[in-house]
């Protein structure tokens, strides 16, 4: 279930950032900004969990959570390119 949340968050971050970069800011290649935002969000979340693990014994940096966030970002890019015709 946790991986699905990461996938969904990566998707939403990529889609929203890409749409904002395209329609509001008029930047070139907004899908790249969306994907980078999803990757950065995944890395920051996992780093936060790793830091918190020292205090709360939660868990350490999980590469599969990071990959799920990145795959969600790729799906968001696919939607930007295919559905919204952003290229």
Question: Secondary-structure blueprint of this entry?
Answer:
Blueprint: H1 2-24, H2 30-56, H3 63-82
Task: Give helix % range.
Answer: over 70%
The number of distinct structural domains comes to 1
Count of alpha and pi helical runs: 3
Poorly predicted runs of 5 or more residues = none
* Helix/strand order: HHH
Q: What is Rg?
A: 14 Å
Give the overall average pLDDT. Answer: 90
Task: Report the portion of residues in β strands.
Answer: under 5%
> Could you say which overall geometry the principal axes of the C-alpha atoms support?
elongated
> In this structure, how is the largest beta sheet organized?
none
Kindly, what is the distance between the CA atoms of the first and last residues, rounded to a whole number of angstroms?
A: 32 Å
- Count of strand segments: 0
Summing up helix and strand content along with how strands pair, one would put the structural category as mainly alpha
């Amino acid at each position: 279930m946790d991986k699905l949340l990461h996938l969904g968050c990566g998707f939403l971050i990529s889609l929203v950032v890409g749409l904002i970069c395209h329609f509001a800011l008029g930047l070139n290649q907004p899908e790249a900004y969306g994907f980078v935002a999803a990757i950065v969000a995944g890395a920051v979340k996992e780093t936060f969990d790793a830091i918190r693990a020292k205090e709360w014994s939660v868990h350490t940096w999980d590469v599969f959570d990071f990959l799920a966030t990145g795959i969600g970002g790729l799906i968001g890019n696919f939607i930007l390119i295919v559905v919204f015709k952003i290229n």
